Amino acid sequence: MALEDRVVITGIGLTAPNGNSLTEYRQNLLAGKSGVVKFETRFMGEVLAGVCDFDDLKYQKKKALRRGTRAGSIAIYCARGAIEDSGLDFENADKSRIGVYLGTTEHGNVETENEVYNISKYGYDIKYWSHHHNPRTVANNPAGEVTLNMGITGPHYSIGAACAAGNLGIIQGMQMLRLQEVDLALVGGVSESIHTFGIFASFKSEGALAAHDDPAKASRPFDKNRNGIVCSEGGCVYTLERLPDAEKRGAKIYGEIIGHAANSDAFDYILPEPGRQAECMRLALKRAGLTADAIDILNTHATATMLGDIQECKAVREVFGKCRGVRINNTKSFIGHTMGAAGALELTGNLPSFEDSMVHATINLDDIDPDCALDQLVVNTPEKVEQVNIIMNNSFGMFGINSVLIVQRFQK
Predict the structure, then answer these.
(1) Largest Cα–Cα distance of the chain, in whole Å?
(2) DSSP 8-class letter at 120
(3) Which of the residues 301, 313, 360, 372 is marked catalytic?
(4) Domain 258-408 in CATH: superfamily?
(5) What is the arithmetic mean of pLDDT over 231-251?
(6) H/E element holding 70?
(7) In the chain, which segments carry CATH 3.40.47.10?
(8) What's the pLDDT score for residue 107?
(9) What is the pLDDT of residue 3?
């Protein structure tokens, strides 16, 4: 690969249900600390959710918060954090050469539900409907709010790819850098999904909404007693740069993106198809010039639905069945399903393994479902390995959209 085509991660900003910085987030993953809590939602009362607690006034004024959205606020917090972490001289950077590409699962539901609820108190008189509604609900809102807040004049848009969107936001930024369309890409994903009761109601009607007496144990991928998804909010944004640019300014490099893939099941609205998931993993490996036994950590997508977990395990066995060196884990067991942010947050939780050689566990795995039994699964306790060089991150979504990213420890 030509030097200018090599794309590296140089900054990370995040908010997750169990941490608002990479250091805090990683410490809690290694400590087995969940971020799932009881949460009140309209018409349903108490549900379980992953809730973020970040300082939304750190980078925004109260007026901007009132006019904007929760997703926009999360995106701004993460993007600003990524720029600060990158050490980039942002004030003097050419803002027309910065692109913002953020994945989202859904957008606008929160604002529409709130407005309908508000006018219901006034006999559904539309004169009480907010004139801010349209900019709040357009799909590019989170990325657009970042550009307004940061004065970025390069391209911005959101990537709508269900729960694969976080990975695809990263892939989009990488591609734009390789095409020389931008010189810096702010990429990743965001989710405000817990602020719409509809997502909880829909999963409940499908029999796929998690319940447990102890919120911290509610998200339990691969466990025989799993009973559904924990809906969560969150966000994670990277600064991506071409390697020569990063090296020229002496940037810290978290890792290099060396493989990626996306495909579609063409199978079902919700149920995944393991054959296509396996194809997606193999395509990412092929593009990276690797075989499956080169992967040190595989972060699974598994959401703790009964059939979804089984289908992914079939795909993993098909690709990694004879590989004993890979370690397999799952981040949703800690934070629930952060929807459009999932791919980016889950990859991020593993990136520090390049430095500390620790593989965070899958927690709440008390009784493994035989259909989900993977020999290489790291269960309940982190595992120290000799070295981590390559990480694969699976992120799949409704309508059978599959995405896979492969990141390598940086080597000159």
Answers:
(1) 66
(2) H
(3) 301
(4) Thiolase/Chalcone synthase (3.40.47.10)
(5) 98
(6) helix 70-86
(7) 7-248, 258-408
(8) 87
(9) 76
Catalytic residue among 52, 78, 163, 280: 163
397 contact partners, CB below 8 Å, separation of at least 6: 105, 161, 162, 163, 164, 165, 403
Per-residue model confidence as pLDDT tens digits over 102-128: 999 988 899 999 999 999 999 999 999
- Which residue out of 195, 337, 360, 372 is catalytically annotated? 337
Tens-place pLDDT, residues 74-88: 999 999 999 999 999
Per-residue tokens: 343: 């791919």
Known catalytic residue at 301? yes
At residue 324, the pLDDT reads: 87
User: Class for domain 7-248, per CATH?
Assistant: alpha beta
Say how far residue 77 (Cα) sits from the centre of its chain: 15
pLDDT at residue 297 tops 90: yes
Give 28's contacts (C-beta < 8 A, 6+ positions apart). Answer: 18, 19, 35, 334
User: Which residue matches tokens 């907010």?
Assistant: 130
Active site residue 337: yes
Q: Evaluate if pTM is beyond 0.85.
A: yes
Q: Please check whether residue 301 is in contact with residue 221, taking contact to mean a CB–CB distance below 8 angstroms.
A: no
212 is catalytic: no
Burial category of 335 from C-beta neighbours within 10 Å (exposed 0-12, middle 13-18, buried 19 and up):
buried
